[in-house]
Amino acid sequence: DAKTTQPPSMDCAEGRAANLPCNHSTISGNEYVYWYRQIHSQGPQYIIHGLKNNETNEMASLIITEDRKSSTLILPHATLRDTAVYYCIVRVEYNQGGKLIFGQGTELSVKP
Amino acid sequence: DTGVSQDPRHKITKRGQNVTFRCDPISEHNRLYWYRQTLGQGPEFLTYFQNEAQLEKSRLLSDRFSAERPKGSFSTLEIQRTEQGDSAMYLCASSPPYDEAFFGQGTRLTVV
Predict the structure, then answer these.
(1) Chain A: closest CA distance from residue B107 (Å)
(2) Considering CB atoms only, which of B31, B45, B102 is closest to A46?
(3) pLDDT digits over B6-16, tens only?
(4) Are B101 and A104 within 8 A, CB to CB?
(5) Taking CB atoms and an 8 Å limit, are A98 and B95 in contact across chains?
(6) For A26-49, what is each residue's pLDDT tens digit?
(7) Computed from CA positions of residues A101, A104, A105, A107, in that sequence, does the dihedral angle turn out positive or negative?
(8) Nearest CA to A35 among A14, A64, A15?
(9) Least confident stretch, A9-13, A67-71, A80-84, A97-101
């Protein structure tokens, strides 16, 4: 079963920051937080992942709380092409072959 | 390297027929995963290979389903005696050890 909870949907204005929350209160010490997104009719696309520290790449920033029970994915300047379903996943690296257990995700709609 | 490739992209079959899907992972990725996704749901894990060894199978993978990865490179997923409930998107992903997984575009199966 998925170990994360996300809001089912969110709206964001084009050009504004999109902040997508995720709760993972049962996360273990060796489990990473991964974010993927899925644009309609395409395969999921990797965005970012982290263990404890905040992370940033060319696509997004990931903020993980100190107790690691929740995180926020930030898209700094959302565009219409960021409209997608965003999945927050807790992944065990060293067991279970690194498989991803998807939840329902958050459907982000970026509006003009 | 063109990413994870899946063939065919779409398949329509009559109930009771057998179908086979192919996945070509990113070269030198020793992990390969199969997922199934139905409308409005997140992808569900089916099975996982490390090189040619099938290390885990979900209980979702009934006896009618079989997956192979004969030489540790490409993989096939076969469904025998298809049922309408098998209609879904079948996704393949590959990864190196302890790194993010990359997904293909999927094969959409429709059983009529």
Answers:
(1) 10
(2) B102
(3) 999 999 999 99
(4) no
(5) yes
(6) 888 888 999 999 998 899 999 999
(7) positive
(8) A64
(9) A97-101
